[in-house]
Amino acid sequence: MTRIKDWKVDDLTNEQKEIHDAIINGPRGHVVGPLRIWLNNPGLARSAQTVGAYARYGTSLPQALSELAILTTGRVWSSEFEWEHHAPLAIEGGIDPKHVDTISLGKRPLFEKPEEQAVFDFAAEANILKNVSDITYKKLVDILGESAAIDIVGICGYYSLISMTLNVFKVPRDTDTWILPNVDDFNNMLQK
Known about the structure:
About 60% of the residues lie in helices and about 0% in strands. The protein has helices spanning about 15-25, 35-40, 40-55, 65-75, 80-95, 95-105, 115-130, 135-145, 145-170. The chain contains nine helices and no strands. Helix 7 packs antiparallel against helix 8 and helix 7 packs across helix 9. It starts with 13 loop residues before the first helix and ends in a 24-residue tail after the last helix. By secondary structure, the protein is an all-alpha fold. It has two domains: about 10-55; about 65-190, AhpD-like. It is globular and about 50 Å long.
């Protein structure tokens, strides 16, 4: 049960309704999960949804790599709502389901595509170590460029905010399709 009472559109203030309508009419098309929580604080909702629209739809990364960074972040936060929404999108974007399953277990997959390995390693280190090694940084930049590194940091940061919101306010997952196993130590995601 979520910690914040849910709302109906008719209950929103004019400012909240404006933000709600911007979300509905944007690429997301619906207000779910953390957006429903943030709408209780219109200042945060307005700013976060703008950053989120970029992090989800506007970066230099193709869908598969963006979703891989999102999944990695969601897994480190053990955010089931986030996982159930983005695991299918990662697979749809081209990430092998066996790698999605490995990440769900809190382990480091060995990707066939070097760009996927570079994004995973970068996102895992950023989330777990709160930094990335020079080797991981160089590998990512050599393969995808500096803009990609900046975009991945933005994606990880935004989806950390989302995951924290989902966890703190106890937003339940929508289905039982993806249930994340308990993982206490994510250092296995860093094992090279």
